[in-house]
Design brief:
globular; Peptide Methionine Sulfoxide Reductase, Chain A
C-alpha cells in the first residue's frame, strides 16, 4: 500500500473523485502544509493557518500507479488557478502535491510538465515535503456520499466524476 497527499481545492470534491478510482483503498480528508498543530476546519477557513484542504490517498500500486493518480488529479481540478478553485478562494484551496521521497517529487514534477501541455497554461500546483497532515473532523469524511443533494456537491462534483469516467473508464468504480 502506498499513499500520497493531494490538495485540489475543496477536499469534498477531491475525496469524491478518488473514491471512484479502482485501486484506491482509502481516502482521508484533512489539513496539511500549515503552521499549527491539529488545526480545525474553522481555523483553516480563515486562511491564516497556512494549511490546505487535502486528501491522504491510500492506494494499491499493483492496481493503480502513482503516475495515473497524478493524471487524474490534474484533469479533475483546475491547477492553473492560484489559491482557488472556482468560487472557493484562499490558500486553503490551493493546488498542491505533498511528497515523501525524491522519487515522488520527481514524478510530481514530470506530471506538472505534462499538465502544462494538457492545460496549455502555467500550472500553479505547489510541491511540498511538509507532511504535517491532520485528519479532518468526522463530518467531512465521505461527505459527497452522505450529502449528494447538497447544492455545493450536486453542482461541483458530478462534472469531475464525468471527466474521470470519460478519461479513465477502465479504472472507474461504478
Amino acid at each position: 500500500m502506498q499513499s500520497i497527499f493531494l490538495a485540489g481545492g475543496c477536499f469534498w470534491c477531491t475525496e469524491a473523485v478518488f473514491l471512484k478510482v479502482r485501486g484506491v483503498k482509502k481516502i482521508t480528508p484533512g489539513y496539511i502544509g500549515g503552521v499549527s498543530k491539529n488545526p480545525t476546519y474553522k481555523e483553516i477557513c480563515t486562511g491564516a493557518s497556512g494549511h490546505a484542504e487535502a486528501i491522504k490517498c491510500d492506494f494499491d500500486e499493483t492496481e493503480v500507479s502513482l503516475e495515473l493518480i497524478f493524471k487524474i488529479f490534474f484533469i479533475t481540478h483546475d491547477p492553473t488557478q492560484k489559491n482557488r478553485q472556482g468560487n472557493d478562494v484562499g490558500t486553503q484551496y490551493r493546488s498542491a502535491i505533498f511528497y515523501k521521497s525524491l522519487k515522488e517529487k520527481q514524478m510530481a514534477q514530470e506530471a506538472i510538465k505534462n499538465a502544462e501541455l494538457l492545460w496549455n497554461n502555467t500550472i500553479q500546483t505547489e510541491l511540498s515535503d511538509k507532511l504535517n497532515f491532520t485528519s479532518a473532523e468526522n463530518y467531512h469524511h465521505n461527505y459527497f456520499e452522505k450529502n449528494p443533494d447538497s447544492m455545493y456537491c450536486s453542482i461541483l462534483i458530478p462534472p469531475k466524476l464525468i471527466k474521470l469516467k470519460e478519461n479513465y473508464p477502465d479504472i472507474f468504480k461504478h
